[in-house]
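Researcher: I've been going back and forth with a colleague about how Large ribosomal subunit protein uL22c might be arranged in three dimensions. Neither of us has a model we trust, so I'd like an independent prediction. The organism is Arabidopsis lyrata subsp. lyrata, in case that matters for your notes. Sequence below.
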Amino acid sequence: MIKKRKKKSYTSVYALGQYISISAHKARRVIDQIHGRSYEEALMILELMPYRGCYPIFKLVYSAAANASHNKGFKETNLVISKAEVNQRNTVKKLKPRARGRSYPIKRSTCHITIVLEDISFYQQYEEYLMYLEKPGCSNENRNLTCYDRYSSGDLWD
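Model: Here is an independent structure prediction for Large ribosomal subunit protein uL22c. You can compare it with whatever you and your colleague have in mind.
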């Protein structure tokens, strides 16, 4: 079996909520509203929406932002929800006793929710650098760039 190796992203952070007791359809109804929005705007939307699925998603977005600020040092104002997905998981099946010795099945569906936040300040700096290079009289030959090779012992190369 071939395992896919994930690329290590330096600008994104995620939070994963597993076995959340809400149906995937109801969670997707909320996720579709916050996909592509900024972190602060998503929190405001989740606080004001009347659905029951908003609270666990709110906690996940907040947790992903805490991971971003603590682990990678990103500012919360630069975070955008780049990916938000809901996967359907196990259905918990119970039997409720009814009259005359009968039973009634109860199905509680669960889902996994993944929230990925991305830092857009890196892309803004990159665009500013490209704009700087497009100015007349500016080229890479005029600038003295020193790069560090990650895979060696720390020697400099040009």
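Researcher: What would you highlight for our discussion?
Model: I'd start with this: Residues 152 and 158 are 14 Å apart (CA to CA). After that, consider the following. The longest helix spans residues 54-72.
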